[in-house]
Amino acid sequence: MTTPYDVPYMERTRLYYEAQGYTTPYHWAHHDDTPFSQLTKSLPQSRVGLVTTAMPDTEQGRAERKLYSTPSRPVPDSMFTLGLSWHDTVTHTRDVGSFLPIEALLTIESEGGIGSLASHYQSVPTAYSQRQTIEEDAPAIVDLMNKDEVDVAILVPL
After folding, report:
1. By the 8 A CB rule, do 150 and 105 touch?
2. H or E element: which one contains 155?
3. What is residue 51's three-state secondary structure?
4. Rounded to whole angstroms, how far apart are CA atoms 99 and 49?
5. What share of the chain in percent tops pLDDT 70?
6. Residue 105 sits in which domain range?
7. Model pTM?
8. Overall number of domains in the chain
9. Does an H or E element contain 104, and which?
């Protein structure tokens, strides 16, 4: 049964991809093996990193959709989310903590639930190119998180 809040995401993605001029229909990524690893440390001993698809709310972040590594402190008051797809009749992006939970993680850190929050969070644009995601963005994020000595990452797509 369809409700007013249903988001036909897959169909909307197919149509968007087609509207960009691609002649081959979009193929969703599929992995037979889950590319995740078991934690080697408990969360109270782990450094946690964040990855979001929202861009920094800066002149450059508004103009150029690319990978950004931004200091986690101070917590940003806003992020640039225009041009991204979400069901804007039932949600909004004014509450940065709902998709970039830095303040919540700092509270959890102060209570001993995680070892620490990484000094940077990563913004990576939503890309319809699996090649770009696999060959460029993912390795760059891993490198940035290794520099920040991240043990576990939280992925928060918008």
Report:
1. no
2. strand 152-156
3. strand
4. 13
5. 87
6. 41-156
7. 0.81
8. 1
9. helix 102-110
